Amino acid sequence: MLERIASAFWGPFTLLILLGLGGYLTLQTRFFSIRCLPEALRQMCRGETRRGGGRPSAWMAMSTALGATMGTGNIVGVATAMVAGGPGAILWMQIAALAGMMIKFSEVALAVEYRRLGPGPMGYLKLVYRSGKAKALPAAFAVCCLSSAVGMGNMTQSNAASQALSSLSVPPVCCAVFFGIFTFVATGRGVGGVMRLSAWIVPVITVGYLALAGAAVWQERAALPLALRAVGEGAFGLRAAAGGAAGYGVRSAVRYGLSRGIFSNEAGMGSSPIAHAEAGGKGPVEQGMWGILEVLIDTSLSCTLTALVLLTAGGGAFWRESGLDGAALATACFSAALDSRCGPVVSLFIALFGITSVCGWYAYGRRALEFLCPHCRVAMGAYRLLYAVGAALGAVWGSREIWLLCDFFTGTMLLLNLPGLIVLAPRVCRMVRTWEERRHRG
């Protein structure tokens, strides 16, 4: 049942809307997501760590959002997408990233502009659904966000970490105990504590993983032309084959590439804007640039490097012949490309990213619960305990069921958030034009 529902959520109609919205925003803003990159990178290099109005800094907000997306999506998610959809899924992940940059920018900018109405999408959706039964839709999004945090945001991360650490002979039960206890302790200081923790951990492990992946690709650089050819053939069905088989291969590449790409950067889901809306000292457009950087680092850079490691390891044939999937495949490919001692290092990276992702999604669910039940300490305590229990269960549950739940919950958030983004898209374009005019005059 979950598989049928997930397939319906991630069918051609939903994916077409995502690509269409991203393309519309990109064209209307004259490729702002590309043009603003120099300014966004300058801000990041300057280290915008100042707080504004008692709020967390832009760096802390992006670190929290990036920590919630890095790891499972761009390591394990890339491996599962390639096994299920073939090498062509990787190209569709990058197309999802290009569209996702402007979608993420729009979410973040709107969330900052209208955060007085509520956290993230729960604020700007009030502008769209203001009458009749539609008033309940922002609350419905909050319920879906809370369900995603408990059913997906913690379980997929601990499940991936458990799979990765199994290569180090760590029993899943031990992972379950660790994740349960750590999650309960780490979330004791609330959203602020989670964001401070992410600001220290996420940049270090992100740079470390990108360096390791870059070294693996360089080691197997002779297989790069063959890998790029396989991606192109798989993405567009260029390999000679029976029409039906080729069509099915392309459909699988599109579905798994786009769905895993969106899961990797969470564009359109409305999760990351909850963290970005916490930041102070930045206007909507400036903070939106940090959302673009988030997608750039997470999907365009990290997912690409991971895919190239998988496609070039062992001369390019290892990933097909190994019979592995998910975290086990990623770990084995790094070991084949570099050294057997690199496998445990990759497993450790996946586990660390799992920890930061669990913390980030706790913040999303906490803000959603506060929107539904403000000032209810009993509800907050129950959520914290339930979230820790879910993180523990994810470490021992089946991987296939976890990923089906992931597709289901991300689909529900998308279906509620996308109509609001579509209606408010002209407002986002006006924000960009006004900001550029003011910047030009200044």
Describe the overall structure.
It is found in: Cell membrane. Its main location: membrane. Keywords: Cell membrane, Membrane, Symport, Transmembrane, Transmembrane helix, Transport. It is a multi-pass membrane protein. The chain is mainly α. It has a single domain (2-431), classed as Amino acid/polyamine transporter I, CATH 1.20.1740. The chain contains 21 helices and no strands. It has helices at 2-9, 12-28, 32-35, 37-46, 58-69, 72-85, 88-113, 121-128, 137-153, 155-166, 172-186, 190-219, 224-236, 243-265, 272-276, 284-312, 318-321, 326-337, 342-372, 377-394, 399-441. α2 packs across α7 (88-113) and α7 crosses α13 (224-236). It is globular, with a radius of gyration of 21 Å. Mean pLDDT is 81; it is low at 238-249.
Brief digest:
The protein is an all-alpha fold and 442 residues long. Helices cover 79% and strands 0% of the residues. The protein has helices at 2-9, 12-28, 32-35, 37-46, 58-69, 72-85, 88-113, 121-128, 137-153, 155-166, 172-186, 190-219, 224-236, 243-265, 272-276, 284-312, 318-321, 326-337, 342-372, 377-394, 399-441.
